[in-house]
Amino acid sequence: MPLRKVALACVNCGSRNYTVSENKNRTERLEVKKFCKHCGKHTLHKETR
Question: Among residues 8, 5, 7, which one has the least CA distance to residue 32?
């Protein structure tokens, strides 16, 4: 079974800048601070499905 990818979207501008492998054991959506090239600063990114 191939690994599925999910996107991480910036909470400020909504841009989907990063992708991560889907984890079936994770019950809550992943939230990480990442650099957003559109906002020009580190912002919170949330997992989209």
Answer: 8
Residue 5 is which amino acid?
Answer: K
> pLDDT tens digit string along 5-46?
999 999 999 999 999 999 889 899 999 999 999 999 999 999
* Burial of residue 17, with CB atoms counted within 10 A of its CB: 0-12 exposed, 13-18 middle, 19 or more buried: middle
Rounded distance between C-alpha atoms, residue 9 and residue 19, angstroms: 9
In the chain the domains, ranked by start, together with CATH numbers, are 5-47 (2.20.28.120)
Q: What is the pTM of this model?
A: 0.84
